[in-house]
Write a structure and sequence with these properties.
The structure is a homotetramer of 323-residue chains. Chain A is of the alpha+beta class. Chain A has helices at 2-9, 44-47, 50-56, 59-84, 97-112, 125-154, 246-251; strands spanning 37-40, 89-90, 121-122, 160-162, 166-171, 174-183, 189-201, 210-214, 221-225, 228-234, 255-264, 269-278, 282-284, 286-288, 292-296, 299-303, 310-312. Helix content of chain A is 30%, strand content 30%. In chain A, a hairpin with a 2-residue loop joins strand 5 (166-171) and strand 6. The radius of gyration of chain A is 29 Å and the shape is elongated.
C-alpha cells in the first residue's frame, strides 16, 4: 500500500492538482468533500448537473420548487387560454375578467394534474389543442418528479461526520495525528477504507516546494463501522511530521486530505466520502475525550455529541512503538 | 488473508467496537445482522431512514400504511372544504351536514386520485385553490409511492438462513467449529466470501481481557452457492479454541461473528449479510444431519428444513489434518 | 489463480454441490446458467421471485398479463357496484341488466384509470366508497407497473451466446478444449473474465469418485469483448484430460462448467453469465470455422451465424507449446 | 501490471480483435469509444437497444419523440372512434365531419392522458371498450416514459474530454507519448485508472505483422480527478516506440487505444470510457500549453478551452530518466 502511494504522490503532478494550484492559504478539498477548483471555458450547462441538485436539496426545498413550478406553469397556460379567448371554454361563471382568469387558472390546474372535473371544458380548436398539450406536459412533468423522488430515495444516505479538529495527540509513547469519525445514520457501513494524504510546503527538505505525502495509518480498514473510529497516523521516523515543531506545522500550510470508501448496506452501493483539515484546524498537544457511554439495555452506547471534544495533553517526545 | 486479519483484529480497537462495549452477556452483532449499538446525541430524524423502513416492511404493512394515509389525507382535505363552506362546491345532493361531509370526502378522494368525475366540482376561489393543491399533493404522493414500490422491487432479495446452532463437531481426526447456511430464495448467488471473527475473554492467555480473533476457515470462498454450505473452522494449533474445554468455552463469553459477501445475480448487486453465535448457541460434541435428499427428476435435492438438525457425536482428541 | 482454484476445487464439497448430487447423467448447471437443483422445505412464496419473473418475461407476455389483470380487476369492481345496487350510480342509460353491467364495467375502468369522465358517477355512500378504493387501487397498480417497466429497462441486457458444442481441437502442436462465445447485443462489454471447471469421474486416478478440476486457460481475461472469443484450455501435462482418449471422455460423465464475469457499459453494472457442456456436447477432433467476414465500410465484420460451425480435424498427438 | 498486460496482448487474438480485422487504415475503437465492428447474422432487434437509444438521446429529441408518438397514437384512436361511429359518443357539437374529427381527436387525448373532462363521453359499447383500452394504453405509455426519464437521470453523466491530438513531446531528457484529459462535468470522479494499448505494424521486428503492445505509463492511477490529467508514456528502452522515427510511426498504421475506469461520486457507479488516436492524430515534436489559470477567489482555476492546445518543441534524443 505504502509503496504504491509513494509512487503516486511523490510529485505534485500526480494528484491531478497542479503545482501552482497550491498557493498559501488555499485548500484543495473543502470540508464538505468537494474540490476547491474552477474550470473555465465549459458552458454553463456542461458544468451543471440539475439532477444532482434536485436530488441533494432538502425535501422542503424540493417541495417548494415543485409547488412554485406548478403555479408558474399554470399561470403560463392560463395566459394562453386568455389569449385564444374565453369563448373557447364552456362552463365559466365569472362575470369580470379577473374572476374568469381565476376560473381559467383552476381549469388549467385541473388539466395539468389530469383531474379534469369537466365543469369547465374546452370547445374551440385552440383551447382543445392547448389543453391536450397541457395534459401531456403535466404527465411528463410528473414523470420527471417521480424520477427525481426515486432518485432522492435511492442514493446512499450516509452521513459520516468528522471531528471539528484533528489533533497531534500522545500515542504509544510518542505522538500521532488523529481525527475521529462517526456514521450519523442508522444505515450500516462495512468494509470502510481510509487514505490520508498530507499536502505541505516542507521548508527543511524541499526548498519551499509543495509536496504530497501519503500518511501511514495505524489501521486503514475496518470490517464494520458500528461505533466511532479514531483514525491515527503514528508520527514515527517515516512520517513527514517526524521532526516538525508546532511552529513548523503552522508555517507548512499543511492540508490533510482524507478519502474514505465504504459499502452501504442499505443502498447496496459503494460510497466515497472526502474531507480535509488545514493546519489551523489541527490542535497541537490534545487528546480526544472518550465517547463511550456505558451499556444501556444491553446495547453499547456512544455519545455522538462528544465527537469533537478534546482536552489538553502533554506530548511525549519518544517515537511510537509500532508492532 | 490470515495475516491481514491478524493485523486488523489483534486489538479490540480495530473492529470499531470499544473495549468497554464488550461486557459479559452483551452481543455485538444481533442474529439478524444489525449492530447491537446505540448512538446518543443524534437527532431523531438523523438516525431514522424512512425510505429503508418503507422498503423493508411487508407488502401487507406497506399497503396498510398507504391506505391509512390515503384516508387521513382525505379527511384533512374534506375538513378544509367544510371550513371554506360547502357553497363553494356545486353538485352536492345531501341534505344533512353529515351527508354533505361524506359527499365532500368522496369529492376529495376524486381530486386526490385525479379521477375528477365532475359530479361535484369547485366554484369558489378557495375551494378551487384547495382542490388545485390537493391534486398536486395527490400526484406527489403517488410519485412517492411509485418510488417506494420500485425501491421494494429493486433491492436484493437474498435471504441466507443460518443453522440455529453452531457446533463443535468431529473434523478430520480432530474437531472443528461448524455452522451451515442455505440461500432460501431462488435468486442465484455467486462468489460468496465468508469471514468469521471470534470475540472472547481468554482467561488463560490475556488476563481476562477481551480479544478479537479472526478464524481460519477450511474454505472461505465458493464460486456458486447452489445448495447448502457447511462453513468449518478447523480447531488446529493456530486456533484460539485449541486448548479450550467445553467449560472454558462457556466461560469465555464467546461471540462468533460472521460476515458474508456475495454477488446476487437477480439484482446484479453485491450483498452483505451478517450474523453471530453467542457461546450458548454453540453445541459441544455434535454433528449436522445430511440435508441431501437424492436426485429427483434429474435435480439434486436438499431438504432445507433439516438445516439446523444435528445429532450427538464423540469428539476425537487429535488435531485436524490440514492439506 | 490456479493455486487458489486448486484449493477451492480439489474436493467435491468445495463447489457447494454435494458428492451425491453428481450421479451419472445429471448436470449441475443448465445450459441457460441456472443451477439444476431443488430445495425442499421452502414455502412456495419463499422461493418465488415475482419481480424477477415479471422483469424477465417478454414484452408481449408482460402486456398480456397487465391487460388481463386490468380486465379481471374491473370485472371484480363492476360486480361490487352491482352488489350495492345500480341506484347508487347516476347517468346509466341502459335498460336491461346486461346493458347496465356493461356500462358499470366501463365506469369501473374510468375509475381505475382515473379518467373519470363523469357521465356516470357515484351518488350513494357505498358506491362512493368503492370508487374511492378503486381509484386508489388503480394508482397503486400503476405505481407497480411503472416500477416493473423501469425494472425491465434497467437490468443488464447482455446476451452472451455460446457455441452449441465444445471441441477437442488441434492447438499448437497438441490439443485443446475450445468453445466460442459472442455478445449478441450492441451493448459493449469490457473486462471479461472466464473461469472453467471440469466435473468428472476419473476412473484412472480417483477410484471412480467424482472430482472437480479448475481448467487452466490460454487467456482468462480480455479488456474489450468487441468480436468473438474462442476460449481455449490447452491439454498439457497439467490438464486432467492429458492422457484421456475419446472413450475415456465419454465414460467420465464430464461436465464443463463455465463462469463468465463482465462489466456492461450500458447499464454500468457487473454481469455474471454461466453455462455448461456435458460430455455428449463435446466433439472430439474438430475445429471451429472462421467467423471473420472481411472489412466492410471500414468496419471489421463477423458472421454470428457461424458461431457454432465446426469441421472435422485431425488431432496432433503432441503437447501444446506454452509460452 | 505490465506482466499481466504482456501476457494478454502479445498476440493479436488476445484483444478479441481478429488478425484480419486490422487492415491498413481501419481503426478498432472510434473516438467516441464505440467499437468499429459489425456483427452479421444477428436479428435487427437483437442488436438494437431501444432503451439505450432513448436514454442517451438529447432531451430535445426525447421530448420530440414523446410528443410525436402522442399525436400519432391519438390520431390512431380518433380513427377507431370514427370507425365505430360518432353516434357512440355524446357531447359532440361540431356539425361537419372535420369538426367532429377534431373534437374526437381531443376526446382521445383526454382519454389517453386520463384528464377525462366528460364534456364528450362514450355511450356505446364499442366506444366504451376503445376508451377503456386507450386509457390503459395511456397509463402504460406514461409508465414507460417515467421509466425512461428516470433512466436518463440515473445513468452516470461523466463527460471526459480528450485533447484533439496526442503528442510525442519532450519528457525528462527524452521523449514521451502524451495526451490530456479533463472531466467536463461537475460530478466528482475518483480512483481513475488508465490503460493504454498500441496496435501497430512494426516492420522492423515482426515481418509486417500487426501486434498489440501495452504501454507503460508514468502514472496509471490517480485518487482524485479534480483538474486536468496529462497521461504520459515514457519512450524508454521498454517502449515499442523506442527506436522509431516520425516516418516509422506514420508507416506503422499505429492506433493508440485508451481505456479509462473511474468511480462517479454522483451516481455511485463505476464508469468506463474509451477512445483512441490513429497515427495521423499524433503530433511529432510538440508540447501541451499550460491550462492553469491562476487562483481566483481562492479556487485553483484551469482553462478547459486550452485542453488541446500545443506548441512546437524540439525533442531531446536521450532516454527519459525513470525513478
Amino acid at each position: 500500500m505504502a509503496s504504491r502511494f509513494n509512487k503516486l504522490f511523490t510529485s505534485i503532478k500526480n494528484t491531478g492538482f497542479g503545482e501552482q494550484a497550491s498557493q498559501q492559504g488555499d485548500r484543495l478539498i473543502n470540508r464538505d468533500g468537494s474540490f476547491n477548483v474552477r474550470k473555465r471555458g465549459l458552458g454553463f450547462f456542461d458544468q451543471l448537473s440539475y439532477y444532482h441538485a434536485f436530488v441533494s436539496m432538502s425535501w422542503l426545498q424540493f417541495l417548494g420548487m415543485v409547488t412554485g413550478a406548478f403555479f408558474l406553469i399554470n399561470l403560463f397556460y392560463a395566459s394562453l387560454y386568455w389569449m385564444v379567448g374565453y369563448d373557447q371554454l364552456v362552463g365559466l361563471e365569472g362575470t369580470t375578467n379577473f374572476q374568469k382568469f381565476i376560473e381559467v387558472f383552476y381549469f388549467s390546474t385541473q388539466t395539468f394534474t389530469t383531474v379534469g372535473y369537466g365543469k369547465v371544458s374546452p370547445v374551440g380548436t385552440w383551447a382543445g389543442l392547448i389543453s391536450a398539450i397541457e395534459s401531456l406536459n403535466g404527465l411528463l412533468g410528473f414523470a420527471l418528479v417521480t424520477g427525481l423522488v426515486y432518485g432522492r430515495f435511492s442514493r446512499p444516505v450516509e452521513k459520516i461526520i468528522f471531528s471539528e479538529k484533528a489533533l497531534i495527540a500522545p500515542y504509544k509513547g510518542g505522538r500521532g495525528l488523529m481525527f475521529r469519525i462517526v456514521n450519523a445514520r442508522r444505515n450500516q457501513l462495512t468494509e470502510v477504507e481510509v487514505q490520508v494524504i498530507a499536502s505541505m510546503v516542507d521548508s527543511k527538505r524541499n526548498n519551499g516546494m509543495r509536496k504530497f505525502y501519503p500518511l501511514e495509518l495505524e489501521i486503514n480498514r475496518i470490517n464494520m463501522f458500528a461505533m466511532s473510529w479514531t483514525i491515527v497516523h503514528p508520527v514515527d521516523k517515516e512520517s513527514p511530521f517526524f521532526d516538525m515543531t508546532e511552529k513548523d506545522l503552522n508555517e507548512s500550510d499543511l492540508e490533510v486530505m482524507i478519502l474514505i470508501k465504504a459499502f452501504d448496506d442499505t443502498s447496496s452501493r459503494l460510497i466515497h466520502v472526502r474531507s480535509s483539515y488545514k493546519y489551523n484546524e489541527i490542535v497541537w498537544g490534545a487528546k480526544f475525550v472518550n465517547m463511550f457511554d456505558g451499556v444501556n439495555d444491553g446495547k453499547a452506547t456512544i455519545d455522538v455529541e462528544k465527537l469533537g471534544e478534546y482536552e489538553k495533553a502533554t506530548l511525549p517526545t519518544g517515537i511510537p512503538e509500532t508492532n
